[in-house]
């Protein structure tokens, strides 16, 4: 039992600096604030054109039960929540009151995503990334590369090594592996090995390409051999992504594969799994506890080269 506990702790809580976590905070928050931030006009459109929810999500059901609808589900309230969330995102990006800012950013993100999901049948592409944002709020994500860290350093309380800096990245890795495995297993359970016959992918890509006017998707739907190869590659990637949990050395290959997989899926079928791309990028850059800190230390310790003394004329 002691050995199992030791293995558990060594996986989730290795002692390291907080630079990896800080780097992931900056990339994740910058992407959320300046790229993936929910559209206020879109939410106001849902709100004003629908008097009832068609499929209220758990978060929205809880708010609807606890608070009067006219208090929170109004254009004015949504506008306030939108800008509070945006300002919190800016504070989280620079690391000012980092935990509070991250919590407000994640909570606002959860609110708007849940609200959008409450009106239509959607695929939860944002769910994993929204969870990751909330997880960051309960971690020392502001202990490095932040205004909070600068203030603590001036007060003589510089951040040292910690064993709580890697678990958010580890959790994102595990959740990503579960997600990929579940989608791959669902394909095999529903279609068996026949899912990889190429015809299934051809039919799916052709219908999507026609409906969304994607020329490259329509072209690919006519390439049976290529669709067979892509079908096999998709199943292998999704079902065996968990290997990256067991063999860390090959993890970067799976992360690069995930980035290319979702970019390809967007180009040929228009599925915007941008959050999954972002999580793969974050894990590629920051899951290795040594790679990013080594480069930060090299950058900060580099001194400008001394200019040679001028010879007297």
Q: If you had to describe this structure to a student in words, what would you say it looks like?
A:
By secondary structure, the protein is mainly α. The protein has two domains: 15-153, no CATH class; 166-288, no CATH class. It has helices at residues 2-12, 19-34, 40-49, 58-66, 69-72, 75-94, 98-117, 127-137, 147-154, 167-191, 199-212, 215-220, 224-240, 243-246, 251-269, 274-286, 291-301. α2 packs antiparallel against α6, α6 (75-94) crosses α7 (98-117) and α15 (251-269) runs antiparallel to α16. It is globular. The protein starts with a helix and ends in a 12-residue tail after the last helix. The model is unreliable at 309-313 (pLDDT under 50).
Category from helices, strands and their pairing:
mainly alpha
Low-confidence stretches: 309-313
Radius of gyration: 23 Å
* Total beta-strand segments: 0
Largest sheet report: none
Q: How many distinct domains? A: 2
Helix tally equals 17
Helix fraction by DSSP (H/I, runs of at least 4): 55-70%
Order of helices and strands: HHHHHHHHHHHHHHHHH
General form? globular
Q: Give average pLDDT, whole number.
A: 90
What is the first-to-last residue Cα distance?
Answer: 78 Å
Strand content: under 5%
Compile the SSE list and pairings:
Elements: H1 2-12, H2 19-34, H3 40-49, H4 58-66, H5 69-72, H6 75-94, H7 98-117, H8 127-137, H9 147-154, H10 167-191, H11 199-212, H12 215-220, H13 224-240, H14 243-246, H15 251-269, H16 274-286, H17 291-301
Helix pairs in contact: 2-6, 2-16, 3-6, 6-7, 7-8, 8-10, 10-13, 10-16, 15-16
């Amino acid at each position: 039992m002691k050995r199992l506990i030791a293995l558990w702790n060594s996986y989730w809580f290795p002692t390291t600096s907080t630079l990896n976590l800080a780097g992931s905070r900056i990339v994740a928050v910058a992407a959320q604030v300046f790229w993936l931030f929910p559209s206020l006009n879109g939410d106001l459109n849902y709100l004003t054109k629908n008097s009832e929810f068609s499929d209220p999500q758990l978060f929205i059901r809880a708010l609807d039960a606890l608070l009067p609808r006219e208090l929170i589900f109004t254009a004015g309230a949504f506008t306030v929540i939108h800008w509070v969330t945006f300002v919190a995102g800016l504070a989280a990006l620079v690391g000012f009151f980092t935990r509070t800012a991250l919590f407000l950013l994640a909570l606002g993100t959860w609110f708007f995503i849940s609200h959008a999901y409450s009106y239509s049948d959607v695929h939860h592409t944002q769910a994993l990334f929204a969870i990751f944002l909330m997880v960051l709020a309960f971690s020392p994500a502001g202990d490095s590369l932040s205004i909070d860290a600068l203030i603590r350093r001036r007060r003589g309380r510089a951040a040292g090594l910690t064993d709580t800096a890697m678990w958010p990245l580890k959790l994102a890795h595990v959740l990503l592996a579960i997600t990929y495995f579940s989608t791959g297993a669902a394909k095999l359970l529903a279609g068996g090995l026949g899912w990889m016959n190429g015809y299934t992918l051809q039919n799916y890509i052709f219908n999507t390409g026609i409906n969304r006017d994607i020329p490259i998707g329509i072209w690919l739907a006519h390439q049976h051999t290529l669709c067979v190869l892509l079908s096999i590659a998709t199943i292998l990637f999704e079902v065996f992504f968990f290997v990256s949990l067991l063999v860390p050395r090959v993890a970067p290959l799976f992360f690069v594969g995930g980035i290319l997989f979702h970019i390809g899926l967007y180009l040929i079928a228009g599925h915007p799994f941008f959050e999954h791309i972002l999580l793969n990028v974050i894990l590629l850059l920051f899951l290795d506890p040594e790679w990013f800190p080594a480069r930060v230390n090299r950058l900060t310790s580099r001194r400008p080269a001394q200019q040679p003394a001028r010879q007297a004329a």
